[in-house]
Amino acid sequence: MYPWRLIAMLEQADISFQDLFYPQRLRCPLEKRIVRAIEENWPAYFPTRKECRGSNWSLTIPEDEPLYQPHPKSRQKLAQWKKEIKGTIVEIRAYRADISWRRFWVICRKIPELRPFLKNFKPLADFLIFEESMWLRHGDALVRQEEFFQRQMRVMFATGSPYHHADPNRVRFLNSNRPTMEKIRMADLMCQLFDRPLMILAVLQTCASESPHSKFWLPIQNHIAAIIKTPSAMTFRMTWLEHAMQVSGAIKKTGKSSPRKWAGMLVSEKDPDVNVINAKAVEVHYWLHGRKLPSLKNVRRIGRVIFDASRQNANQADAGKDFWLFSWMITLWLEKHFTEIASEFKNDNRKIQNYYRRFFHYLKIVQPARNGQGAGGLFAHQPCD
Q1: Which of 102, 155, 196, 372 is deepest in the core (most CB within 10 A)?
Q2: Is the separation of the CB atoms in 106 and 97 below 8 Å?
Q3: 141: left (phi over 0), alpha (psi -120 to 50) or beta
Q4: Which of 237, 338, 331 is nearest to 284 (CA)?
């Protein structure tokens, strides 16, 4: 998964994320094409009819066709826009860092607000950059199917590759006499759908466990344990909401969660009317029964309730709110991933449960690798270029 796929999935799940990743005030009708054009010195780069000859804009321009230069005002507009997007997620998109975890990480580190937050994700960044560096770059020469598959095999099972720990059944499939195209498809599924996501989740759990703000995270193993018990995409959301009620203190004397008490906490008014609380309670009911998805605004409100500055110091509260939002993003990603897994396994619950159990296998591998025990593993040091 590239950064742009993760961002696109979140935007699709909740339109509110679009404004988070790509604020309205920074959107430019010229899109990222003009920035690439300036940086890569295209001969003509302004995609408007007024500033290029002919009625249609095309990247393929006849050699004998004279080209217009951009208007000075257009250059000024572009320069101003590039200045405004500096240090934002928009810059990541404009400079195509959304197709490279390495570039994505470099730009994120330049954003002062993200630096303290990113310290917790150093192990994840190391893994993503290393795993990305193993694969062949785009634009390689065309080769026959068999040669392409052999290249994939060399990459997947090279020294230090995390795919040594992949499901043995899938590894045996790759070494079988099945048609080459079927084995290529299996290798792609291992990288995109089966093994890499579980590796990432295991590394992410390690990030959460080692974080100084670990109590603000919803542990990934809670999600996985719940999905093994009840294989359903909604299980991830229910686990997150249940955790939210518990840590908010919206519980009964028995220790069970109280949705109505939680609804009262989520109302922004100090002394809310009973009708306001009833309306919020209905909304919470819809969340808990999968009839409605909490908006990004509500997710942030939940975070404010949990990490109220009166109960935590200011630094803890700020960090907690950031991690809380991130945990919601992970929950949405897990829902999306589950639907793809369920489709691949034709909704066979037993196969789905067995698949997610391998998360705990990868989790055992991560710990000794992090502690420097044994050779190889998910965190084996390898050059990134």
Answers
A1: 196
A2: yes
A3: beta
A4: 237
Long-range contacts of 235-240, Cβ-Cβ distance < 8 Å, separation of 24 or more: 236/331, 236/334, 236/335, 236/338, 237/287, 237/290, 237/293, 237/331, 237/335, 238/288, 238/290, 239/331, 240/327, 240/328, 240/331
pLDDT at 189 > cutoff 90: yes
Q: Given CA atoms 125, 127, 130, 133 in this order, what sign does their dihedral have?
A: negative
What is the CB neighbour count within 10 angstroms for residue 93?
20
Is residue 70 a contact partner of residue 46, using CB atoms and an 8 Å limit? Answer: yes
| Residue 290, token pair as written in the block | 């999968």
Range list of H helices, 211-344:
220-229, 233-248, 259-266, 274-288, 296-306, 314-344
Cα separation, 333 vs 6, in Å, equals 8
Give the domain ranges of the chain. 3-38+74-111, 128-209, 215-344
Overall average pLDDT of the 119-138 stretch = 81
Q: Which residue has the tokens 């290029």?
A: 52
For tokens 């109590």, the residue is 215
Q: What is the three-class DSSP state of 257?
A: strand
**Is pLDDT larger for residue 26 or for residue 101?**
101
Q: Any residues with CB less than 8 A from the CB of 38 and at least 6 apart, and which?
A: 45, 78
pLDDT in tens, 294-319: 988 888 888 888 776 446 666 666 66
Give dist(CA 56, CA 64) in Å, integer.
16
CA 232 – CA 352 distance, rounded (Å)? 10
Question: And the tokens for 346?
Answer: 């034709």
**Is pLDDT above 90 for 288?**
yes
Which tens digit of pLDDT belongs to each residue from 232-246? Answer: 999 999 999 999 898
How many CA atoms does the CB half-sphere of 200 hold within 13 Å? 21
For residue 251, give the 3-state DSSP assignment: strand
Rounded to the nearest 10°, the torsion over CA 337, 341, 346, 351 is: -140
Beta bridge partners of 251: 257
Q: Which helix (H) or strand (E) holds 209?
A: helix 195-210
